[in-house]
Design goal:
By secondary structure, the protein is α+β, with helices and mostly antiparallel strands. Among the domains are: about 260 residues, Rossmann fold; about 100 residues; about 40 residues, no CATH class. It has 13 helices and 35 strands. The two termini are about 35 Å apart.
Amino acid sequence: MMRSHFGRREFVLAAGLSAVARPASAQPAAPALIPRRLLFDGAARSRVTISPDGRRIAFLAPRDGVVNVWVASLDDIAAARPLTNATDRDVGRWLIWPQDNRYVVYFREQGGDENWQAHRVDVETGEIRALTPGPGVKSYVQQISPLFPGELLIAHNQRDKRYFDIHRVNVATGASTLLLRNDRFAYVFTDPQFGVLYGALTRDDGGIDFLQRGEGDAWLPFRSIGLEDAASTWPVERSTDGSEIYWLDSTGRDRAALVAETVATGACRVLAEDAAADVWEPLLDPATRHPIVAPIMYLKRRWQVTDPQYAGDIERLAKAAGGDLVSVGLSGDRRSWVALAEPEGRPGRYLHYDRPSGAVRTLFAQRPALEDAPLVPLQPVVVGARDGVKLVCYLSRPREAIKSTPGPMVLLVHGGPWARDGADFNTTHQWLANRGYSVLSVNYRGSTGFGKAFVNAGNREWAAKMHDDLIDAVDWAIAEGIADPARVAIYGASYGGYAALVGATFTPEKFACAIDVFGISNLVTFVNSIPPYWHSWRATWRMRMGDETTAEGRRLLEERSPLNRVDRIVRPMLIAQGANDVRVVAAESEQIVAAMQRRNIPVTYLYYTDEGHGFYRPENRRSFTAVAEAFLAQHLGGRVEPVGDDFAGSSIQFKAGRELIRGLG
């Protein structure tokens, strides 16, 4: 099929025209529209975690439309009750039970600033107490231990925004004692004895030196990791008795393995490994901290048992899951387990496993409103790049799609880039497939989980081989009769937003339109605006992206920056940004929008005053997806649900181009 050449004049006209519709008789009837509210208002219940005594679960669920912390007895799930009453925005996605079973620790931030402040709530009285300073201070739980049931190690950066000091915190009172003043380490490794073992120091060549804490303030060389292993080698935990340290380790191999190191001798043995993919963080025995089972995902997730006494338990849970076993947690006595299972192509459901009896029961569904929705399967496919590299991709097709009949497609690019797309239930895939689009997600080189060679193949390949991988995957979909070459969109957030800008500027006629959500427009300004606590990783970034401190590196970054090719944009563009984003600051979107406006290039620009790196308020997710849906329908010809009241309660601002998208009111 001849590719449509689309010039500036035609682009301007197209902003007000709908795509050509296909005859109704040419394909099966489309399923009912799944309302955006059902897809994007969030799960009814999520992040379920079991108490150490196995009597209760804590989870996240909406309260008056805002996600809060809830608790329920495992014997009476129907009597679940809220523990918090946040009204402005959702609480954070991490829930932790300290070992005394009395409190649940959770996190809050303000307006998307990512300064997560730790709080605890008393499950009996509902009393709430802050455990770390705030606002403006970022914190995380460093260590829990069965040896100290009423305490946690918590890290925060109040003293120096670049580094995280380690504090020993009494959960009941909030009293805090400084354990380690950190003035140089990217991160610190501690153990269940609440001892500080290692500090990770990034080198100028992008590698990592692990220094072992000695007497007093002495730090002694322990282990050096090169850049090639830096993304796939780190310590996971030390056993409670201190005899072993567990590592995810790719040194001497391509795929990261789970390795046990004997402290007394330094001898190592492999607990789990795979020929195709990295091993991920293992599930640990809550008392001994020994690994029980480790997840591995190449195309789909599977679990490799590392402690034979649990093999039957994992087998029973996997069978009951009826699909993918996503996560597992267990009580301190190992008798009571909670797992998240995803049946093929369906939302997840939480299971309770009683180990003594072997009985498995369903607690509740994550998204009961979608149980009867016309959902589609997520199909893993492996695509060959032009140089032979294998790319693991995930494809969703509309129910009404006819095999080998090309239709509109959205290339959905993951962020990171040091992350990956997986086989988990994906609401964006379901949304777009329901609107009539095939959806393709690509694990381009630089993505994690497929071995260190694959990660390092992305070094200094931004807008080069990493983008070629995306183009090769699109060409595969075209050759397979899935995608109409004239109706392919590129859409992504963070690095995915950068990829969308690259698509619009480096391959300007490849895509019919582009959606950039807080994407990087200028790599030089980006690296000079990262938050202070990322500065420890700056040397690693310079090796992977380009070094802005050298003339050669700066030239590379400038060459790979979409801002410097803005005059090549000839296709419709939707850009969205959170005002409080600390990772990709608003200036990244502002400068490319301004450059387009100076050249009279049409652009629609959405701005959210109370969001950061992600749209977390449901009202904002609703408004953004309403605009994106209308934008895609206009330029690809898919189906659209009317906006209705989806802007109500949102902070959305149209800083440019509202008139370019029909149906927004």
